[in-house]
Design goal:
The protein contains 17 helices and 7 strands. The chain is α+β, with helices and mostly antiparallel strands. The N and C termini lie far apart (about 60 Å).
Length: about 375
């Protein structure tokens, strides 16, 4: 993959775009979907390792790895890779995780790419939506006369070799599944040192990898990118695009402490985990640190919690047929009576009255148009 050829660069459409700036840290609110941890620990157990000590050390429960909306700090994701790699004692552990991760392991992104029209279409979705899985890095598409490469941008200190192996091997293997044949990539580069034997890399990528590079990237041939998928379903892929875009829009902006805490509060409402201490523990920060960050932005946890409850309650009353008792529970109230009092204080009317009046207004507006 010669850098001398003329290239066109397209940077990922994600707030992760600044992750390679000097001084950038993974402790800036970056998160990873909890479901991405499941294939790592499953492979460790497949290799007769024990995942339970890792879960205990990081304060995670096994069922949390099945929660498609749960995000964990990126530092936790990195720690899982570090601990699992050491426990596995396998220099090819990352490749094996990719080989055994079943279709669907990565939720909507897995399915949307699988039903794409061609490989180019699928990789566009990876670039657009990969933040659903992780804020860890940005992804660039670079086009040249020789092919199209996909390069990760992240601080060099943040690169974990096994994780990077898994990331690119998953893309290569999913690409082969999409087209119904094994691909021979134009090239593949890794920044980590070469293993004693690169045979397993050649088997997955269909080419001789370059190790010790300044970049981590894959390059595909143009003819492979344009080749039609084995069983495309563009209508379903577009439907999944809308779902993925909605999920992406709900993710908090990087570096926006208030947005991140709002997201955490929204997730914790129905489970009752909306105490500042529990949210701080989940984010690996002290309650005092979060309080200072909110105060610096002119708000408080109490005010934020009330605001999220009010907005969520209004949304559920307007857009769902759930009973008022259900809505009360979903926004964290122990009783419908307490919810009634709070909602009347927010809006000046009881929940049922608010719902009826809003529906009448909507019908009138619809008739007018």
């Amino acid at each position: 993959m010669s850098d001398k050829s003329r290239t066109t660069v397209v940077v990922v459409e994600s707030p992760a775009e600044c992750c390679d700036r000097p001084g950038q840290s993974l402790e800036d609110g970056r998160t990873t979907a909890a479901i991405t941890l499941a294939p790592i620990l499953a492979q460790l157990e497949r290799d007769r390792g024990d995942a339970q000590p890792i879960l205990r050390a990081l304060g995670l429960a096994r069922d949390q790895l099945l929660d498609h909306e749960l995000r964990v700090p990126e530092s936790v994701h990195l720690r899982v890779w570090q601990m699992a790699s050491v426990a596995a004692r396998d220099p090819y552990f990352g490749l094996r995780v990719a080989q055994h991760a079943k279709l669907g392991s990565y939720d909507v992104l897995d399915y949307a790419t699988h039903w794409s029209v061609n490989l180019q279409d699928a990789l566009c979705r990876v670039v657009r939506f990969h933040r659903l899985l992780s804020d860890r890095h940005a992804l660039e598409e670079r086009r040249s006369a020789h092919g199209t490469s996909y390069r990760r941008r992240e601080p060099a200190s943040a690169v974990h070799g096994q994780e990077c192996d898994c990331f690119f091997a998953t893309i290569a293997l999913r690409a082969g599944l999409l087209l119904g044949r094994q691909l021979k990539l134009k090239g593949v580069r890794f920044s980590h040192a070469a293993p004693s034997d690169a045979k397993q890399y050649r088997e997955i990528f269909g080419t001789e990898p370059t190790f010790g590079s300044t970049t981590n990237e894959l390059m595909f041939r143009h003819r492979d990118l344009r080749a039609r998928a084995r069983a495309p379903n563009p209508q379903l892929a577009k439907l999944l695009d809308r779902y993925a875009a909605e999920m992406l829009s709900r993710l908090p902006a990087l570096g926006d402490v208030v947005a991140q805490l709002r997201f955490a509060v929204m997730r914790g409402l129905s489970s009752g985990q909306v105490r500042l201490e529990s949210i701080a523990r989940a984010q690996r920060k002290s309650p005092r640190t979060l309080q200072r960050a909110l105060a610096a932005r002119g708000t408080s946890f109490r005010h934020l919690l009330e605001e999220v409850r009010r907005e969520t309650a209004r949304d559920l009353l307007l857009k769902s047929d759930r009973s008022v008792t259900e809505v009360a529970f979903l926004v964290g109230f122990a009783s419908a009576a307490g919810f009634h009092r709070a909602f009347k204080g927010w809006s000046g009317s009881a929940p049922e009255q608010f719902r009826r009046a809003s529906r009448v207004k909507r019908r009138v507006a619809e008739r007018a148009t």
